Structure formats: C-alpha cells, structure tokens
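Tokens for DUF2069 domain-containing protein. Go.
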Amino acid sequence: MDDQPVKKEILPRDSRADLLRRIALISYVALFILIFSWYSALVTDPVFPRSISMIILLGPLIFPIRGILYGKAYTHAWAGLLMVIYICHGVVLAVGDTTIERSVGWVETLLALSFVLSSAFYAKREGQRLGLSIRKKKKKKKKK
C-alpha cells in the first residue's frame, strides 16, 4: 500500500467560469479607467490635490491586478472585498451635487457591484474545479 497522497484530478475550465472571469476583468479595468479619468480631468477640488485623491483611490486597485490578470480564484475572492470601498465611494458620489457627479457615482457603483458578483461566482466555480475547500475538517474526538 502506498502512503502517497492522492492527487485530485483538475477538471477543464468551463465556459461559465470564463465568462465570469471576463466580466470581472472588464469591470475592474473599466473602474480603474473611470476613476483615473474622473480624477485626472474632471474633478476640480481646490482643497484636496488631485494627485492625493488618485493615490488614495487607485492605490488599492493596484494590489490585486496580477492575480486578476492570471485568473487566481483567491485573488478574485479578496479583491471582491476590496470593492466595498468603491461601492461606498460610488454611493456617496451618486448623492452628490452635480448631474455628472451623480452619473459617475452610479457607474462606479455598478462597476464595483458587477466585479463583486462576477468575481465571487468565478472564485466559487474555480475553487470547485480545482477541488479546493474553505471548510475545515473536523477533528475526531478521542474517547477516554
């Protein structure tokens, strides 16, 4: 009898997972472009410099970029949690003063929500495909 660990067979990626990954990637890139263009060209705030605003808002988007581009399920999962910042920011902009600010806020909120949903479902499907589990195995209790 071999004491070698049993390797689970990795199934081929299905078309739904690919679609979810593409939606997440498009939402991510569109959100990055929206925030960059909004704060580089359209916002004129005399109190707070543009560069600081862009660093604060675009900085967190840079961390998960490699894992998202390579389709890592774990990165998609935690990047979805990161998008809560952009959902809140979009809602704050959506109740703003000007019409363009409201429009940008709603678009930002929708892009962040689409990323959250598509990346969560992608991470779930990819985890199932790879045979990963987030559940801890229960330890057997020793009887005395």
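Residues 99-130 form the longest helix (32 residues).
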